[in-house]
Specification:
With 155 residues, the protein is mainly alpha-helical. 72% of the residues lie in helices and 0% in strands. It is globular and about 50 Å long. It starts with a helix and ends with a helix.
Length: 155
């Protein structure tokens, strides 16, 4: 993967971005192809990212998105439906860039709020009722997580 990294990343990004270009609802073959290639494209991008030493992969923002990603995943469809209704009431395509920016920001904010309001309290309750047998803290921040893993003998 190191030798052809630029080609692999470019093709994978094109495969992922195709989801935002083509209308999957009107063309069933596009839906089948895109949904079948998504795991491969995301997997190749993940492999390239794991071998990269890029500064943005070590950012606190990306760690925060990863920490709240499950809540983002759960709510992104509802947010998409609401914003699509709000931005495109007459099925026009005006303001698409504003829609995408609003969608991404809203999904991230909703993910953070839902994680802090619902997921974290239930994880703390679970930890109190059924304590972990490892020494790794349940809720960690990205910078301290590596140190916690190094100090844990279970790994």
């Amino acid at each position: 993967i190191k030798k052809n990294k630029l080609i692999i990343v470019s093709v994978s990004l094109a495969g992922v971005l195709a989801n935002f270009v083509f209308d999957r609802a009107s063309n069933t073959w596009i839906s089948i192809v895109l949904l079948a290639t998504n795991p491969v494209c995301y997997g190749l991008l993940l492999m390239a990212a794991l071998q990269s030493s890029a500064w943005f992969l070590k950012s606190k923002f990306l760690a925060m998105v990863g920490r709240n990603s499950y809540a983002m995943y759960l709510w992104h469809l509802f947010i998409n439906d609401y914003l699509h209704f709000f931005f495109f009431p007459n099925k026009t395509e005006g303001g698409f860039l504003l829609y995408v920016v609003t969608y991404v920001v809203t999904v991230i904010i909703a993910g953070i709020i839902i994680t802090k309001a619902v997921e974290d309290p239930f994880l703390r309750l679970r930890e109190r009722l059924y304590p972990s047998k490892t020494k790794v803290p349940l809720l960690t921040n990205a910078p301290n997580y590596d140190v916690a893993l190094e100090n844990n003998k279970a790994f």
